[in-house]
Specification:
The protein is globular, with a radius of gyration of 25 Å. By secondary structure, the chain is an all-alpha fold. It folds into 4 domains: 197 residues, MFS general substrate transporter like domains (Growth Hormone, Chain: A); 57 residues; 178 residues, Up-down Bundle (Growth Hormone, Chain: A); 49 residues, no CATH class. It contains 19 helices and no strands.
């Protein structure tokens, strides 16, 4: 098959300017995927209540969507190579839109989980091709603009979700958590239709391509992902399910590596991993995804657990990350065309570290406005570092690295986010227990200060109590105060952990060497799109 084929069944190739529509399409697909995943998590309580699901069984609702995305990732790369990205993305968009429309109509949990899997399989085709599409379709001098928009969409999607979910619950219904994605799928389908080139099916690759290897990789990564997602709820290695998932996933990944080593032309070229800077860049992508997750998760959890805010009110704080992206992203693109990428990466991580350190001044009295400066610094740093890392990564790609690059970005995106979430959940939970124990040691029943505090609480609620209820309620309020302080301190520790990760990333940037021939013309061929 010709790499420059422009027609299919006599259909004319799109005009030269239409790849810009393709760039818009993959960017919209990226934000839709990120937003859907985050909205489902934030609105989980409302969805559980609507279908009558309990906490434990309802916990599988967001897992079903994200695990399906992980499953389809490697397979989408294979299918895109065979059937062309245009066909795969059009099919994925249609499946995603229909499943999202049907989800609120599900009569029970089993049907809802099945539709979540279908929706995840559809949307999981969007991300693997996004960054590689930008690098392939745009001239090199426009890479910073496309990648800045890509970074903006991911961060925007994560941080605007709280505002959307809160607005839907207060002014509409929970159904729009899913139905909004059907609305997005309609213009997205049109963008894919007009923005991606019509290319013939690669029947030769269909006969000789490594579908078996991609299936092994997809299965292995999916099983490990599910274990990470459900691990904290099921107490990790104390659960036979988690152990089984981890062992089976590790075996599948081992078989995948063994299988790839026997192929003359493996689908995933692992030689890219030993190329200069590549391992360091993958670690930096994971660090960036962790920091983006930390910005969103820590602030959201604190405002809900300590301040008792609703999702819409939480969204007011996160808008300090989301809305400035409309200014930050173009500024980052402009800067990246004039700065050495390694300096830009280090500057981004340093700004993020400063933002997290500023947030360690948190007290139990903080409200959403107190986070504004810290979140703004984090937003600027995370957009700069993510854009610069992928931009610098692009200069290390050879003519045959498109598939491998797409697989790396998809895996790092999903695993980085899930590893970040799992680590933060475990770390803050253990920190809260530790702080609660330390504070509790100073709250003795016979201590005059404790007795005085309970008496003050009892007096405050005395007019609302009967008999000895006032003293009991006073003791309950003291216990609540201890929990509040412990949770606040654990959030502080989470910010401190994130600042340490960002600082280590700055140190890691120092080992990066100049990319091979930064001034050379793009080595990645335009064939797939």
């Amino acid at each position: 098959m010709s790499a420059t084929a422009d027609t299919v069944a006599g259909a004319p190739a799109p005009p030269a300017n239409l790849p810009w529509l393709g760039v818009a399409a993959v960017l919209v697909g990226a934000v839709a995927t990120t937003l859907t995943s985050r909205l489902t998590s934030l609105g989980l309580a409302d969805v559980r209540g609507a279908i009558g699901a309990g906490f434990d069984e309802g916990a599988w609702i967001p897992t079903a969507f994200s695990a399906a995305q992980m499953m389809i990732g490697p397979l989408a790369i294979f299918l895109g190579r065979v059937y062309t990205p245009r066909r795969v993305l059009l099919a994925g968009c249609a499946v995603y839109g229909i499943a999202m429309f049907l989800l609120p109509l599900a009569p029970d949990l089993r049907t809802l989980l099945l539709l979540q899997v279908v929706a995840g399989l559809g949307s999981g085709t969007f991300i693997p091709l996004t960054a590689s599409f930008i690098l392939i379709s745009l001239p090199r001098h426009l890479w910073p603009w496309g990648l800045a928009a890509y970074a903006m969409n991911i961060i925007l999607g994560l941080n605007v979700a709280s505002s959307l979910e809160g607005w839907y619950m207060e002014h509409a219904t929970w159904h729009w958590i899913f139905w909004q994605n059907t609305v997005v799928a309609l213009p997205l389908f049109a963008l894919y239709w007009f923005g991606l080139r019509r290319l013939p099916i690669d029947r030769e690759y269909l006969r000789h391509g490594d579908f078996r290897g991609m299936l092994l990789a997809a299965s292995g990564f999916t099983l490990v992902f599910i274990a990470l997602d459900q691990g904290d709820r099921l107490d990790w290695l104390s659960s036979s399910l988690i152990v089984t998932l981890l062992v089976t996933g590790a075996i599948a990944l081992g078989l995948f590596l063994l299988h790839e080593s026997t192929l003359d032309v493996p689908s995933i070229d692992f030689r890219l991993l030993v190329r200069r800077n590549v391992i360091v860049l993958i670690v930096l992508v994971l660090a960036t995804r962790f920091l983006v997750t930390a910005s969103n998760t820590l602030v959201t959890s604190y405002l809900i657990q300590v301040r008792g805010l609703r999702p819409l009110e939480v969204g007011n704080a996160l808008l300090w990350v989301a809305l400035p992206q409309l200014v930050i992203a173009p500024l980052v693109a402009w800067m990246l065309g004039r700065l050495e990428p390694r300096f830009a990466i280090g500057t981004g991580f340093a700004m993020a570290a400063a933002g997290f350190l500023l947030a360690t001044g948190i007290t139990s009295q903080w409200v959403e406005g107190n986070f504004s400066v810290a979140l703004l610094l984090q937003a600027m740093g995370e957009t700069l570092e993510l854009t610069a890392v992928i931009y610098f990564f692009g200069h290390h790609l050879g003519p045959t690295d498109g598939i491998t690059f797409g697989a790396i970005i998809q895996t790092a995106r999903l695993f980085g986010g899930q590893l970040g979430t799992s680590l933060l959940v475990v770390f803050t939970r253990k920190a809260e227990q530790w702080h609660s124990n330390l504070i509790g040691q100073h709250v003795a029943a016979t201590d005059p200060a404790t007795t005085e505090r309970i008496a003050a609480y009892a007096h405050a609620v005395g007019s609302l109590s009967q008999g000895n209820d006032a003293e009991a309620r006073g003791a309950g309020l003291l216990a609540t105060a201890v929990r509040t302080q412990a949770y606040t301190l654990s959030t502080l520790d989470g910010f401190l952990l994130a600042s340490c990760v960002a600082t280590l990333a700055v140190a890691l940037v120092l080992v990066l060497r100049k990319a091979p021939d930064m001034a050379a013309p793009p080595a990645v061929p335009p064939r797939p799109f």
